[in-house]
Amino acid sequence: MTKLSPSEIEQKLSEIDGWEYQENAIHTTFEFNDFKDAFSVMTRIAFEAEIQQHHPEWSNVYNKLQISLSTHDSGGVTEKDFTLAKTIEEIVAAES
Amino acid sequence: MTKLSPSEIEQKLSEIDGWEYQENAIHTTFEFNDFKDAFSVMTRIAFEAEIQQHHPEWSNVYNKLQISLSTHDSGGVTEKDFTLAKTIEEIVAAES
């Protein structure tokens, strides 16, 4: 899996809302109504991440969720990260 | 819920393995076989946290899980944090 260039990443980021590129990874944050809503979304993301065999670095406190995606083996951001980012956006949109 | 003193916290920390007190919270880390094992444990913890109405600050990447507990309303560590910490230890022990 080839690491994308900063300009390729910027191009792809323009296609999804609310993500930014920083320190070799793409990042977003979400805020839900409460912990149950946040963890429900995390659970749906967990299943898809496992299917894609690509996993987020994420943290949660109560209703807040922070997600960072990068491809460790490639040392940066790859297509795999954008595939998972789009899946995450679809899950969050479906839950809202 | 009363904030515990540092000496009360140290006393209680001596009763559970692998936790430390730092920056007004108690912290631990776990390492599992893989993402599925880590997220399975997170799911069991999530249910218990919701029952206790007390939620962790936690982060996960693949098989690693970091957990910090504090009681926001009390500005520090309280009995609630130790109750949840013991529950977490029981869940992890049961899964291992």
TrEMBL record, chains A, B:
<dbReference type="Pfam" id="PF01329">
    <property type="entry name" value="Pterin_4a"/>
</dbReference>
<protein>
    <recommendedName>
        <fullName>Putative pterin-4-alpha-carbinolamine dehydratase</fullName>
        <ecNumber>4.2.1.96</ecNumber>
    </recommendedName>
</protein>
<keyword id="KW-0456">Lyase</keyword>
<comment type="similarity">
    <text>Belongs to the pterin-4-alpha-carbinolamine dehydratase family.</text>
</comment>
<dbReference type="GO" id="GO:0008124">
    <property type="term" value="F:4-alpha-hydroxytetrahydrobiopterin dehydratase activity"/>
</dbReference>
<dbReference type="InterPro" id="IPR036428">
    <property type="entry name" value="PCD_sf"/>
</dbReference>
<dbReference type="GO" id="GO:0006729">
    <property type="term" value="P:tetrahydrobiopterin biosynthetic process"/>
</dbReference>
<dbReference type="InterPro" id="IPR001533">
    <property type="entry name" value="Pterin_deHydtase"/>
</dbReference>
